[in-house]
Amino acid sequence: MHFVIPSGQIVFFTYNLFHSLYVLRSPFLIFELGKMHKIKSRSTTILTVRTEQSVAIGGDGQVTLGSSIMKADACKIRKLLDGKVITGFAGSTADAFALLERFEIKLKDYPSNVARAATELAKEWRTDRVLRRLEAMMIVVDSRQTFLLTGNGDVIQPTDGVLAIGSGGNYAMAAAKALAQNTQLTASEIVQKSLVIASEIDIYTNNTIVLEELQCTK
User: Fold this and answer.
1) 24, 182, 169, 15: which is closest to 88 by C-alpha?
2) CA dist., res. 58 & res. 86, Å (int)
3) Domains and their CATH numbers in the chain
């Protein structure tokens, strides 16, 4: 059963076999006999591959809450700055959107310098008392550069143009490196095939792929 409390939040009550009371309320917190536990939200796999012609970034659509699949077609890839910059995120969805909003502000401050915008966001992410609690990672690409942003203040640029994050990131990155070195596939084809391979190994990744691509410039 459920009802709406004055603050507008919906609170759900369920009982187990021993009649212990659990209350589930947003954002994914369980209160058990006065104790609070946070449910771990696991998702996803984000992969980017850069070649001389283009850069592609893609992600799967699965969102897993605890041991349940809550959504199979989530979009974790976003275009910014009129499509000139593309980001992909892994981690808490709410935290990732909060970071995306901050990053979009930085891009408007430095519209022609994505590296500077990424660095400024990483500095703010590490030093701001609220931001540093956010649990997410971001990949940022434009026509010339690829960056990984973390809450530790890291801004990492891969040497070979292949980068992945999320629960299935290592599987996708291994597949992408192998395909890039041994085939003539395009960047988007490598991303597509690598994410499918990751979805066959990682239980928190599915084969519903969202993919975006930009033409590279020097």
Assistant:
1) 169
2) 10
3) 2-39 (no CATH), 42-215 (3.60.20.10)
- State whether residue 182 is helix, strand or coil: helix
- Distance, in Å, from the CA atom of 204 to the CA atom of 108, rounded to the nearest integer, reads 34
Instruction: List pLDDT tens digits, range 186-208.
Output: 999 999 999 999 999 999 999 99
pLDDT in tens, 47-74: 999 999 999 999 999 988 878 888 899 8
Three-class SS state of 2: strand
Q: For a pLDDT cut of 70, what percent of the chain falls above it?
A: 78
Measure the CA–CA gap between 149 and 160, rounded to whole angstroms. 17
Whether residue 103 contacts residue 140, with contact meaning beta carbons closer than 8 Å, is answered with yes
The CB density around residue 34, as the number of other CB atoms within 10 Å, is: 6
Predicted TM-score (pTM) of the model is: 0.78
Q: Tally Cβ neighbours within 10 Å of residue 78.
A: 18
3-state secondary structure 106-168: HHHHCCCCHHHHHHHHHHHHHHCCCHHHCCEEEEEECCCCEEEECCCCCEECCCCCEEEEECC
Q: Which helix (H) or strand (E) holds 59?
A: strand 54-59
Spatial separation of the C-alpha atoms in residues 154 and 137, rounded to whole Å = 10
The pLDDT of residue 128 is above 80? no
Q: Catalytic site residues?
A: 44
* Residue 95: predicted pLDDT: 78
